Amino acid sequence: MGSIAPLIKAGSYKYNDNLTQYSRRKTIEVTIGDVPMGGSNPIRIQSMTTVDTMDTMGSVEQAIRMINSGCEYIRITAPSVKEAQNLENIKKELNRRGFFAPIVADIHFTPNAAELAARIVEKVRINPGNYADKKKFETIEYSEAAYQAELERIREKFIPLVNICKEYGTAMRIGTNHGSLSDRILSRYGDTPLGMVESALEFVRICEELNYYNIVLSMKASNTQVMVQAYRLLVQKLNEEGLKPYPLHLGVTEAGEGEDGRIKSAVGIGTLLEDGLGDTVRVSLTEDPEFEAPVAKMLIDRYNIRAGHNSIKPIPHDESPVNPYMYQRRATREVLNMGGGNVPRVIIDFSKVSDKKMDDLKSIGHYYMPLLDKWNMSDQGADFIYTGNNKVPFMLPNGLKEILNHSVWLRMDDNANSYPLLTLKDYFSAKPKHKVLNFIQLTIEDLDDEVMDKLRDDLTAVLVIDTFNLHAMAEQRRAFFELMLNDVPVPVIIMRKYPAMEDEQLQLYAATDCGGLLIDGLGDGILLSTELVNVKTKDLHLKLLKTLNSTSFGILQAARTRMSKTEYISCPSCGRTLFDLQETTAMIRKRTDHLKGIKIGIMGCIVNGPGEMADADYGYVGVGKGKIALYRGQNVIKKSVPSENAVDELIELIREDGKWIEPNSIIEE
Description:
- This protein is α/β, with parallel strands linked by helices.
- It has 17 helices and 25 strands.
- Helix 16 (581-592) links the parallel strand 21 (567-570) and strand 22.
- The chain is globular, with a radius of gyration of 26 Å.
């Protein structure tokens, strides 16, 4: 199993220009038709068609819808020579209709298709894990001579494509996917970000030997931690080896659909955009492709106004207390159920709910059942509610605790099960505090030596760190660094306030800001809030609380820090897909979405099969018309199940493993 440690010395981490000041990474410019990427160009947007590539008119119509939605590059699968050849017909028809967006041919397994496509379209995407290799999930012991012989074999297969791209002015994306690393790479480096990086660099080195530089690189994974670590490590390795600073294509593979797909994409892509990495974005949703570009644009547009943000105290990369290539949660003391080994907690701002009733808690996962006179808590039941100056007028269910402003908490007769939120002035006053847990709200400007000294030894303190900086994630990260460098093991809640905005925008922004911290092991909880402009009814207010709650849990799940629901690793579909992915994903979700923590991969074809869903517990993969293969991990359990029986068979497989539970019919939305 490979390791990053021998190749990256501690303290030498440098994957971006600046950890505290927003600065987009400087790259070479890559020519892709009339829409260049990298250099001083804006961050580009792309998506991928889902129509069969042999359906020329269907592909053209879908591509036009994508372009009209904001897509600047159109990726189309070319699984064989016939599809590669038909790209010419698609391109001609698009041009005839006045659409000239560059076309990207997506290639897996077939060098001859890539070589043909490179003569037709503006860019080809190859996957180094399967361009010249076949995956059999075998562990092979290589001598150095044998490994070099394998590299020479790859070189011979790859050079013809490079020469064609040079001749025709065609760009190339060398796109590593976490789930499709070759057996050779896995045998030497393991299933690691380093393996992903080396898989791409083997091909990059060949390109540079041949003086071909029209290259874009990507490091995609469905696991956001792995994805972020791999992109960061790629940048560092390019710098260390003196290779060109190639543009980066950002994406989270198999992100899924709806809210989950958007949050997961934002956690991965947004984390990198915050640090100035990324020159083109594809949001991979299990939805029609024209819905992807607006999401990508919403993520990207935040950085058009990021320059000139309020300054943040600098920190050199070699003084950062966080290893950016390896997940390790920040060590903190345990305070009640926060910090230590506890999962990050969810706090919901209930302070603006004026007429608090028991039914209100349904919006945040706590269900009162009058007939039984008891509470039931879902897997996404909030842990705390912040009620400000208005105490809840009824007894809260077990599993839910209340936070009040300190001045109100002091006036309560029974405050044993409620906890105060203090300002710094409150914190340093002589007034009583809770014996077990006290929340202290502050910003980075408040973290002076006096505050640090008091917090260091306070076994009851939990910080709620807020920020008003436009470069919010970086400022809050810098606050965590201050605590770590000063050995202050106090748990920290990430607090983010947003102006009034649509649910989708709130999900993307919060997932970027909080997810970027959680991926690096920073944060013991989330407290999100937003303005209530034009909210005139209680129903709308409770709908907003439900959005805040589901977004918070979604971020924790996407960052892999708290699993509270079933995770669906579903591909976004393409011309290779053998069934209706949207319909099938919805059907599987309906039957299995109560299985907390289970990961189910739903793949449209064998190309996106066991490899792309490497992180899944179970897999549902199209292998032929009306035929499904079912996987346990990466092992095929049933090879050719009729599609009408496949979901039942999947459930039976989960049942055999003792992981199936019957849906709770009591809790109903």
